[in-house]
Amino acid sequence: MSRGGLARAGLISLVGAVTGAGVNFGIGIIVGRGLGTDGTGTFFQVIAVFIILANVLELGADTGLVRFCSGSVATGRNGELRPLVRTAIVPVVCVGAVLTAAAWMLTPQLAGFLSASPDVPTEQIVRMLVPFVVLASLLAVVLGATRGLGSVATFTVLQNVALPVGRFVLIGIALLAGAGLVDVLKAWIVPLPIVAVIAVAILARQLARRTRGRLEGVPENHEATRVLRRRFWGFSSARGVSAAVEILLEWVDVLIVAAFLSPAEAGIYAVVSRSVRAGQVVQQAARVAVAPMVSAALARNDVAEARRLFVVVTRAMVLMSWPFYLMLACFAPGILSIFGPGFAQGSNALTIMSLTMALAAAAGMVQTVLLMGGKSSWQLADKSAALGVNVGLNVVLVPVWGVVGAAVAWAVTVAVDTSLAAWQVHKGMGVHVSPASLALPAALPLLVFGAGGLALRAMVGDGLSGVVIMLLAGGVVYVCLCWMFRRRLGIDTIVSSLRRRRLSVPAS
């Protein structure tokens, strides 16, 4: 893909990811202020269980469709697209229906996993949400197909904008009306079926356009279709296990904190961890925009192009995510005070996790390269090792250090996972970035938001006023410095590519 295409796809993904992260951050704020630490802890426990189940039921088919559909399009085998989509969706729906029925019958046991106040109707909550789990899985798989077919905008608009905005609006209305936890969870789930229907309609239209009048690459017989199915599930099944491990890594610590401590401390930790993950918008945007390109490059054995994409994205991740992480680290109490009384107790945990994520961002999109290179089994081994480290350290540290113990366990886990993936991508696939190419993108945020943030904190404290001053003054200085060094950072090339692409589009 041209630099203009990469820049355009990246910009669309970034805008959508920033919007989604901002709205989800807002959901955390209104839930924290509306339900308090105790209610927030129960809310995020329920969301954790829901998301874990939904991701497990995806069976890895969402990533499989990104890889195989983009590979088929890149090599002109458009006739494989419909069989690929059927191969992915049918098992997800069937397995999901069976497991949904089982979960419905095991409602008391599932409700028993939640640590909540006695007055919280946990069984009612589980029965209310279980039927929607398979729908969430289907949405992810359908959006994976649209990404594989080259539609970055579909995923961005539906997953990163429509779904979180719908949830934010409905939860806000519910809280303003004096709703409790159950009604807030209802508001959280309502937008899902609407977005799922829209996604299915868009995918059907994309498939019709891609396969209309095209016979190239159509499997000649049932045996060819079986071979395609084996190839798809050979990759996706390993990815499905890896994705299950990955989502456990993201949410199991919230459940462990709730089990060992209390719903209130689980709420504090959930807000801390969600705040840190808001900084992953650049990585998420890059994954959505660049994953099909990396897959296509590796399918053509074009390692040089895959390496170029990796370097461009890694520099952007450092340049754009480090300011956020450094602000979180310097002004943790002020930022957490936004969520309401009691949440600032997680300040030390937020500092630890923010600095860890900054270092992880410097490794680049190593997970995406592994997956798009067909190394899902490697990633599975990495994630399994990381999950073992995470659970083991949480069980040991949370009873002793509380929320800070969970943060330390999380930091070590991220370090293990990222180091393994970076080594595999470098040594096993020949895709890497030299430290020298990251020197300038790292130096600018360290100067402005690191050194500048510490100096400002010494003068005005770590409260909300420091956050506002750093955001406004530091932001202006940072933008000016980025513009001064735009050639060395590659910003001028991206801007020129976007401008040429816009001018090349004829007026309607």
UniProtKB/TrEMBL annotation:
GO cellular component terms given for this protein: plasma membrane
PANTHER family: O-ANTIGEN TRANSPORTER-RELATED, PST FAMILY PREDICTED COLANIC ACID TRANSPORTER
Domain of life assignment: Bacteria
This protein's UniProt keywords: Cell membrane, Membrane, Transmembrane, Transmembrane helix
Membrane-spanning ranges: 12-31, 43-63, 84-105, 125-145, 157-179, 185-204, 324-344, 350-372, 438-460, 466-485
InterPro entries: Poly_Biosynth_Transport, Polysacc_synth
Subcellular location field: Cell membrane
Membrane topology, record value: Multi-pass membrane protein
Primary localization: membrane
Keyword Kinase belongs to the record: no
Source species of the chain: Phytoactinopolyspora mesophila
Pfam families to which the protein is assigned, alphabetical: Polysacc_synt
Name used for this protein in its record: Oligosaccharide flippase family protein
